[in-house]
Write a structure and sequence with these properties.
about 350 residues; alpha/beta; seven-stranded mixed beta sheet; binds pyridoxal-5'-phosphate; ArAT; aminotransferase; Aminotransferase_I/II_large; pyridoxal phosphate; histidinol-phosphate transaminase activity
Length: about 350
């Protein structure tokens, strides 16, 4: 047998591995997972029934064009079918967007810290990441991002609200930024947490896309709609971009179960958005609680909060785990804590209070 291993692309070397949020330990002291920005509510009974019925035909390939779901989305957002594309979660769609736009020698700009998949999917395609630090207030520095554009720039992510800080960019500043971006550079507004936004000054990306052919909006069923495990997300973009997304899609990537669950969720939107409303109340309670304890917490419009703990990050995460909640540490920077069940949020607040006293 030869000792040589198969030749792999050099770009794969050094790719940071995606760290999924740690699960809650089965049977152990840990009871709550606040590490993946998931929806803590179980599936709605109606959605569960739809999924259960769809299970009986998984010997068949799914509808590759996601026809019924696309029709539903087209109506829901008032956009033509040719402006829609689906994928295996919005992260799948984000990867398709990079494949469609960027290769070796090209640059992809995004804020940092932001969603940790951006550097991974950029490097896989052989393109170069240009990371623009967040401002001191943990917000996208859109002026610096505009200044980072070169003739090699192909795609810019604006994560709004930003993962992991929860911070947002507002209408006037985002429009000013979009006006500065050349029309042949794609701007991807990643709105995975859109439904949790309550600040009226944050623009709806779908409105911005309508008059801007270089803007693409990413949405997901994973967060507000509670379908993280079924993997379905979508993009709204003008025809050339949406068509490129269909070319770069993995054939049959979105299962029939996921498609039907997504449709059922859109039809149960009132109930699902009611749950989002409860999570937003919990979010506000958590933020107020932390501030009352003396923490500086950036304004969050997502279903998570960000605590900048620097060198104490890992210790804080360990203390949370000891008390039964798993959070998401970014060593040396801070922790991102998903707003979950009330009891879980209470435990987190209690740990934060104890930790604060020790600082
Ligand atoms: C900002 C952002 N975009 C996209 C995603 C991807 O979500 P999904 O692939 O489940 O749609 C996430 C998930 O955490 C996220 O935080």
């Amino acid at each position: 047998m030869s000792e040589t291993s198969p030749k792999l692309r050099a770009e794969l070397e050094g790719i940071p591995t995606y760290k999924p949020g740690k699960p809650a330990a089965a049977g152990g002291p840990v009871a709550y997972k606040l590490s993946s920005n998931e929806n803590p509510y179980p599936p709605l009974p109606g959605v569960l029934e739809t999924v259960t019925a769809a299970v009986s035909s998984f010997n068949r390939y799914p509808d590759m064009a996601c026809t019924s779901l696309m029709n539903e989305l087209s109506e829901r957002f008032g956009v033509p079918l040719s402006h829609l594309a689906t994928g295996t979660g919005s992260v799948g769609v984000a990867q398709q967007l990079i494949q469609a736009t960027s290769g070796p020698g090209d640059e992809v700009i995004y804020a940092w810290r932001s969603f940790e998949a951006y550097p991974i999917i950029t490097q896989i395609s052989g393109a170069t990441s240009v990371q623009v630090p967040l401002t001191a207030g943990d917000v996208h520095d859109l002026d610096a991002m505009a200044e980072a554009i070169t003739e090699r720039t192909r795609l810019i992510f604006v994560c709004n609200p930003n993962n992991p800080t929860g911070t947002v960019v507002k209408r006037a500043e985002l429009e000013r930024f979009l006006d500065r971006v050349p029309s042949d550079v794609l701007v991807v507004l990643d709105e995975a947490y859109r439904e949790f936004i309550r600040d009226p000054e944050v623009p709806d990306g779908v409105e911005l896309y309508r008059t801007r052919p270089n803007v693409c909006v990413l949405r997901t069923f994973s967060k507000a709609y509670g379908l993280a495990g079924l993997r379905v997300g979508f993009a709204i973009a003008h025809e050339p971009v949406a068509a490129a997304l269909r070319k770069t899609a993995v054939p049959f990537g979105v299962s029939q179960i996921a498609q039907e669950a997504a449709i059922a969720s859109l039809r149960a939107e009132d109930e699902l958005l009611g749950r989002v409303g409860s999570l937003v109340c919990e979010r506000n309670r958590v933020v107020e609680g932390l501030r009352a304890q003396g923490w500086t917490v950036p304004e969050t419009q997502a279903n998570f909060v960000w605590l900048r703990l620097g060198e104490r990050t890992v210790d804080f995460a360990a203390a949370c785990e000891q008390h039964g909640v798993v959070v998401r540490p970014f060593a040396g920077e801070g922790v991102r804590v998903t707003v979950g069940e009330t009891e879980a949020n209470d435990i987190f607040l209690k740990v934060a209070e104890g930790f604060r006293k020790e600082l």
